[in-house]
Amino acid sequence: MISVHNEPQPTDLGDVRVANRAVVLRHVRVHAPCSRADIAARTGLNKATVSSLVSELIERRLVRETGLTENRIGRPATMLVLDGEPYAAVGMEIRADELVVVAVDLAGNRLLTWRRAFTPTDSPTDTVRVLATLARRAVARIVEQDRTVLGLTVGVPGLVDTTGAVPLATSLGWRDVALAAELRAALGDPEPGYPVSVDNEANLAALAEYRHGRHAGTPDLVHLTGGTGVGAGVISAGRLLRGGRGLAGEIGHLPLDPGGPVCACGRAGCVEAFVGLPAVARRLLPDTAEEGPVTDYLPELDRIQALARQGDPRVRAGLTEVGRRLGHAVSLVVNLVDPEVVLVGGHFAALSTWLLPPARQELAARAIAPDAGGLRLDASVLGATATALGGATAALAAIESGRLPAR
Ligand SMILES: [Zn+2]
Fold first, then answer.
1. Ligand 1 center from residue 100 Cα (angstroms)
2. Which family is this sequence assigned to (predicted)?
3. Is 13-82 assigned to CATH 1.10.10.10?
4. pLDDT confidence of residue 166
5. In the chain, which stretches have pLDDT less than 50?
6. Long-range pairs for 366-372: beta carbons < 8 A, 24 or more residues apart
7. Ordered DSSP codes for 242-276
8. Separation of CA 268 and ligand 1 centre (Å)
9. Number of Cβ within a 10 Å radius of residue 338
10. In CATH terms, is domain 219-381 a member of 1.10.3720.10?
């Protein structure tokens, strides 16, 4: 699993150096271009420590001097930026209808984005094989560019425990799949040579939001995934909220109304049964019968958008009702974890023009804090590759937490 969000507190001098290295890297990432003196002044680290850490980071090509200087009284200061070009990380997502691969360098620049149609079979082993082939191809592309792969993280639409196993992923038809272990075995001879992790799709989308989204850097942030399933990734005080076994965030199955429609999980009135994409399509377009992965509903989503734009009264009224249910669901999270920002993805983002105004009203009515505590409820702009981007971001986490890459 990802270690950065649970890194141990520093206990000896080596740990202190790791922690200080993380502070310097974070400062350069956020404030670049900046000088050694800026870093010392803004972080409280002494100049000798900063100088020694920066030399080491330059030597390992994590930071570089720009050649630019800042003119100030006294000596001009050499400006620093993140380098990280020799390093890359890969994120993947298994969806019920496609596989997504994203690779980024340490500075967050996208190196590749691939999407490949995919149909889950009865055998998770087949899926692991396809996933491994795709991962190997991405890694080969990165290695050709003279970069070192720091890690691979795969997002799954289901429960993922702390060992990277998947106890349940309904949309894939999976139960008790030891995905991380199987993927490592499929990639390695005997080891892949880089860490392989598995995480829940909504957690990774939240990480992508935290790093690359429109409210990047907000330490208390929630990303709600929209699609066939509905899930939440919760970042609290800058860390993913995972729960004891890694299973936190299953907002899709919070009950909104016990008299509501039956959910895919077998219970009645879950959030997903009201606002999941199949429920929205069925409600707004009564001729929709099919149940399937998100791509099966893309024509319906297009039709809903077209009818809403034309002002179709039935579709507009339906969207208002779905928006209210969405706002109700968001209010449950807001009352529980008090985020500053909630971002909605998938079909919620695609329909945000019509869903968010009633959702914000419902949220304001149901949140205990006046005006929902100033919470911002917005549409994500990261699109369909958010989870894979979050996976790549997660794989960079060890470096960002101050560990040096293996030589
Ligand atoms: Zn349910």
1. 26
2. Belongs to the ROK (NagC/XylR) family.
3. yes
4. 95
5. 1-8, 10
6. 366/327, 366/328, 366/331, 366/335, 367/331, 367/334, 367/335, 368/335, 369/334, 369/338, 372/331, 372/334
7. --SSS----GGGSBS-TTSPBPTTS-BSBHHHHHS
8. 7
9. 16
10. no
